[in-house]
Amino acid sequence: MDIALQINGTTEHLDVSPGVTLLDALRERLGITGPKKGCDRGQCGACTVHIGGRTALSCLTLAATVRQPITTVEGLSTHDQLHPVQRAFADQDALQCGFCTPGQIMSAVAATAQGIDDPDEVREFMSGNLCRCSAYPNIVAAVRSAGSEERRTDATV
Amino acid sequence: MRPFELTVPATVDEAVAGGHTFLAGGTTLVDLMKLDVVAPQRVADITALPFHGISTEDGLRIGALERMSDVAAHPGVPAAVTRALLLSASQQLRNMATIGGNLMQRTRCGYFRDITMPCNKRRPGSGCAALEGNNRMHAVLGTSRHCVATHASDLAVALVALDAELRITGPDGGRTVPLTDFYRTPGERPDIENDLGSGDLVTEIVIPYPELAANSTYVKIRDRQSYEFALCSVAAALDVRDGVVAEARIAAGGVGTIPWRLPGVEAALRGEPATEAAFTAAAEIATHGTTPLAHNGFKVPLLKRTLVRALLELTGGDER
After folding, report:
1. Tell me: the pLDDT tens digits for B198-230?
2. What fold is seen in the domain A2-75?
3. Do A55 and B95 touch (CB under 8 A)?
4. What is the distance between the alpha carbons of residues A85 and A142, in angstroms, rounded to a whole number?
5. Which candidate among A27, B17, B93, B280 keeps its CA 20 to 30 Å from the CA of B168?
6. Would you call A41 an interface residue with chain B, using a CB distance cutoff of 8 Å?
7. Has the ipTM of the complex gone over 0.90?
8. Helices marked H in B74-185 — which ranges?
9. Which chain A residues are closer than 8 Å to B227 by Cβ?
10. A2-75 and A84-156, same CATH topology
11. Domain total for chain B?
12. Which parts of the sequence belong to the 2Fe-2S ferredoxin-type domain (chain A) (predicted)?
């Protein structure tokens, strides 16, 4: 099937079989390797991307069914300027091996955009992203710190 | 995954005519296709069809293609439904899954997902590995010697309690089915899970009398605090007048092969005082007919306690 995907502001044309997941199209066909293949069953969240501005699991999404723009972790930073959530993950040491981090960051961007700050609500929101290194306390700290940074920035505009 | 043909029907007539397997959010179907548990030859992506919108005129009407996260965020949706949705899966899955698809998710257990194991649902006549296997998560109500898998939808439990109806369209036209009549217990045919025929498509979910749900809740007990199936859950709506139960609607999840409405408990509550003692007495009726397996006997007392907790929550008596 001939498909056109809008990824990080660029339109990519691909010929895929119907069973190809968005995750495989991104990684194997387009070299966009930010989204990771952890479980490949929709359970770990390492493949999280944004489709139409919302988080989605690219391993359970067939590439040929995507009609809205896709953002991966590669699309967050502008030039050499990290996204505030990326900066917060680095500052708060919210990772060890880093394999789950692109997925964590895509969920964290959605959490801060929704203004989620209460620790219990952050944990609930982030529960679809597993971290084998168990960096959870620092991930919660990073989400909260990025959120408060964004709110502070908004207030000064 | 086995090769298949993917089409995107532009009209409802086109969708229901083709003998397709329908794909919406894909969170169950794509998963099962990747595991080779199901291998449809023709798949129709129905997300372009016009089953959208949430309306509070003439009951609460929700288009089947509305996403779980959008339904949960709508102010006109009763508390029991909102809570059931927000306690389901993860935020990513709630963004993807439609509510029609949520109701159509397969009744399943780990043995159904593992193609190396016998399973009467996946391969009729091959046996049920759960009967003598690990059956801690399995059902204690509505089981048969052919299947003991639980129905996993939290949403369905809330909707069954609130007398929801499904609008269905198909090759022979449209019909309305109460959700309480929609699901089928496994009996001799665990591969048949509901009332849909070939080409039938759920188009809308209707709660005809949402005022009954004004005082409603959903309590879910699980092994983890988030992103986990229910060991036991209870959806309840209660109308209490002058300290007496005037009306009750109750269903349980995590314990049945289908979302389990509890009319006996509702009848026992009507006219009784809204007290913990009356709730506890009525909850005893929920356990009638339970058939525990080797590892899931704990679900019987858990069902009673979950039910009492839900009712206390609705009457302001749950301080825990």
Report:
1. 999 999 999 998 888 999 999 999 999 999 999
2. Ubiquitin-like (UB roll) (3.10.20)
3. yes
4. 7
5. B93
6. yes
7. yes
8. 79-86, 91-96, 99-104, 110-113, 154-161, 179-182
9. 127-128
10. no
11. 2
12. 1-76
